[in-house]
Write a structure and sequence with these properties.
This protein is an alpha/beta fold. It has one domain: NAD(P)-binding Rossmann-like Domain (Rossmann fold, 3-Layer(aba) Sandwich), CATH 3.40.50.720. It is about 40% helix and about 20% strand. The chain contains seven helices and seven strands, in the order E-H-E-H-E-H-E-H-E-H-E-H-H-E. Strand 5, helix 5 and strand 6 form a beta-alpha-beta unit. Helix 1 crosses helix 7 and helix 3 packs parallel to helix 4. It is globular. The protein starts with 9 loop residues before the first strand and ends in a 7-residue tail after the last strand. The mean pLDDT is about 95. The chain binds NADP nicotinamide-adenine-dinucleotide phosphate. The site of NADP nicotinamide-adenine-dinucleotide phosphate (NAP) has 31 residues, from helix 1 and helix 4. This is Short-chain dehydrogenase. It comes from Pseudomonas knackmussii (strain DSM 6978 / CCUG 54928 / LMG 23759 / B13). InterPro entries: NAD(P)-bd_dom_sf (IPR036291), SDR_fam (IPR002347).
Length: about 250
């Protein structure tokens, strides 16, 4: 099913330089959607550059910086209105569970960064428009060392669900996708050395129903479904795409 009946739909995806956000941007471009993609790195990755003739607009920017979100809004105004928004930019860092600065750092990107992206673009959204925030499977369980990360995502989820009600009158439909363990560079940024990472991966794999991390496409496809008209009756839900991790 095509994502949209609109002749020239536009999407904004943050964190589009890598992992899940990159896979979402690629899929949207393949479906003929113009994509305003943002991440801190200066140039789009090669796989996006290869599709640049198809409607890619790249903005190098940081979702924690108001000036960068203003530039995003300005570009959106020129391209818009915006049909789809995926505030996907995120970071994950291991820290002591009582380390408040670790929470502030991760909330700044994962929570405030995502919400401020929507705030900056709210007036540029089409009616209707669909927004998919990114949570985490870990909100269902626990993971020692990631309390601050989980808290940032869980607070985002709480806010997104109420926003789904508040913004419904403007025909903005809001949901979340909570990925399970997905093979992306984020795992290499947690602060673990190679052998620690291998041992975490082993124990994670044992809980996954097919024994391996999700590939990004499985998560991106779920995000595209929630953006699409096929999900028009779904509001404020958290779709957990986790290869069964939270079932055991
Ligand atoms: N992979 C998993 O297992 C998993 C599980 C649950 C949830 N998630 C969530 O899924 C989302 C995508 O993560 P991923 O796994 O695809 O990780 P990733 O490959 O590390 O991608 C993260 C993206 O966010 C961007 N980013 C980070 N900080 C940013 C900032 N301040 N401003 C703008 N962009 C920023 C990065 O680009 P630059 O460095 O170029 O800025 C990159 O494009 C995140 O929200 C993450 O929390 C991932």
């Amino acid at each position: 099913m095509p994502i949209s009946e609109s002749p020239s739909p536009v999407a904004v995806v943050t964190g589009a330089s890598s992992g899940i956000g990159l896979a979402v941007a690629e899929r949207l471009l393949q479906q003929g959607v113009r994509v305003l993609a943002m991440a801190r790195r200066s140039d789009p990755p090669a796989s996006l550059q290869a599709q640049s003739g198809t409607g890619l607009f790249w903005l190098s920017g940081d979702v924690t910086r108001a000036a960068d979100l203003d530039r995003l809004a300005q570009l959106a105004r020129e391209l818009g209105p915006i049909d789809y928004l995926v505030p996907n930019a995120g970071i994950a860092q291991l820290a002591d569970g009582l380390d408040n600065e670790a929470f502030q750092r991760q909330w700044a990107v994962n929570g405030a960064g995502a919400l401020n992206t929507l705030a900056a673009l709210r007036d540029q959204l089409n009616q209707p428009a669909a927004v998919v925030f990114i949570g985490t499977f870990l909100s269902q369980v626990t993971f020692p060392g990631l309390a601050a990360y989980i808290a940032s995502k869980s607070a985002l989820k709480a806010q997104a669900r109420t926003l789904a009600v508040e913004l419904a009158a403007q025909r903005i439909r809001i949901n979340l996708v909570s990925p399970g363990p997905t093979a992306t560079p984020i795992w290499g940024t947690l602060g673990l050395d190679e052998s620690q990472l291998a041992s975490v991966a082993d124990s994670v794999n044992q809980r996954l129903l097919d024994g391996s991390f999700l590939e990004v496409g499985a998560v991106a496809d779920a995000i595209l479904f929630l953006l699409s008209d096929g999900a028009r009756g779904i509001h404020g839900q958290d779709l957990i795409v986790d290869n069964g991790y939270t079932l055991r």
